[in-house]
Amino acid sequence: MTPTYSLSDLGWSAFFLSQLDLDELVTTTPARVSSVHRDRISVLTEAGPTDLVTETGVSTGDIAVGDWVLSHPTEHRVVRQLDRKSTLQRGSEHHVRERQLIAANLDTLFITTSCNADFNVARLERYLALAHDADVTPVILITKADQVDDPSTYVDEAQKLGRSLEVIAMNAKQTESAELLTPWSGKGQTVALVGSSGVGKTTLTNALTGGKAATQGIREDDARGRHTTTGRSLHALPSGGWLIDTPGMRGLGVADVSYGIDATFPEISELAGQCKFRDCKHEGEPGCAVMAAIERGEIDPDRLRRYQKLKREDYYASETVAEAHIRQRKFGKMVKSAMKKKAR
Ligand SMILES: Nc1nc2c(ncn2[C@@H]2O[C@H](COP(=O)(O)OP(=O)(O)OP(=O)(O)O)[C@@H](O)[C@H]2O)c(=O)[nH]1
Ligand SMILES: [Zn+2]
């Protein structure tokens, strides 16, 4: 039997309700997107799961798993998509402004790493920038705590990355691991797991879903081979929450997440406003408040290096094709004139 859910079970809140006008309140049905197909979307409503086609002219590519839409009272179609509380997207590796929607309306992003060679603060900062930019609360999970003598050294390292950041060490293979995550996976809460290959995402997914990851919350006929465009879907958790799986989140480029990078390095970005030049790169410019703080020993120089690296990567990945073109032409001209000067 297909389980039924109330709107609040599905994650509905005042944030979404306040977007409806009186007419919509009476005539439309809120629906949460559980998977996205090329020509339609699968949704969960209070009346159960169903499929909807999108508004005319709107591609399903603009809709992400986790989105809320209003569905028409009699026809199986979307009337309107609601504003998101959060949007998780990834930058493409190409040097064009191109971002791929991963999930909408997540409350928490579990950034997963393990007590071994995978543990890398630069990678964690990269995921943190993504989470902050998406407006999702990050929680760092450090798996394989059972394989080291003292997991607290890993916890302490991760804890340095944020004053109020939650960091949890665990053995993902123990069934209790799901219990450690209940503060974030209770009724109506939506979570996703990201992290490198082999850190234990599948193990944790199975712990959270009770091993039923593949089938919960999706229409049954999906199991008969109807393909979703992304492979992503919304899974109901026995704890009352929702898990959106995130295949394709492994390679992790940053693009257009400048805000998220600043939020990940508050000790640097908060000072940057006091630099003499508004576009100071903190690379030795006069009147640089960040360099001054480094000299006073107040900022970790390694953090500044990683901040600058992410900012550079974000800048190049965020520029449009036209901007890249101008930059390359400028560079070409500069090389030419330098060569002319040399020849003289
Ligand atoms: N001892 C121990 N082993 C773990 C733990 N977490 C995961 N493993 C093991 O590590 C291996 C990889 O775990 P997976 O859950 O498949 O990792 P994944 O992140 O899903 O990997 P991909 O599917 O490649 O992205 C498996 O053999 C798990 O049993 C843990 O906390 N402790
Ligand atoms: Zn500066």
From TrEMBL:
EC number: 3.6.1.-
Residues binding Zn(2+): 275, 280, 282, 288
Compartment(s) of residence: Cytoplasm
Domain annotation CP-type G: ranges: 98-252
Pfam families per record: RsgA_GTPase
Binding site for GTP: 143-146, 195-203
Classification via Gene3D superfamilies: P-loop containing nucleotide triphosphate hydrolases, Probable gtpase engc, domain 3
Gene Ontology cellular component terms for the protein in this record: cytoplasm
Record flagged with keyword Phosphoprotein: no
EngC GTPase domain ranges (all copies): 104-250
Keywords from the named record: Cytoplasm, GTP-binding, Hydrolase, Metal-binding, Nucleotide-binding, Ribosome biogenesis, RNA-binding, rRNA-binding, Zinc
Any single GO BP term: ribosomal small subunit biogenesis
Keyword Transmembrane helix: no
Co-factor remark: Binds 1 zinc ion per subunit.
Molecular-function annotations in GO: GTP binding; GTPase activity; metal ion binding; rRNA binding
Cofactor needs: Zn(2+)
Function in brief: One of several proteins that assist in the late maturation steps of the functional core of the 30S ribosomal subunit. Helps release RbfA from mature subunits. May play a role in the assembly of ribosomal proteins into the subunit. Circularly permuted GTPase that catalyzes slow GTP hydrolysis, GTPase activity is stimulated by the 30S ribosomal subunit.
Family statement: Belongs to the TRAFAC class YlqF/YawG GTPase family. RsgA subfamily.
Record's subunit section: Monomer. Associates with 30S ribosomal subunit, binds 16S rRNA.
Name the record gives this protein: Small ribosomal subunit biogenesis GTPase RsgA
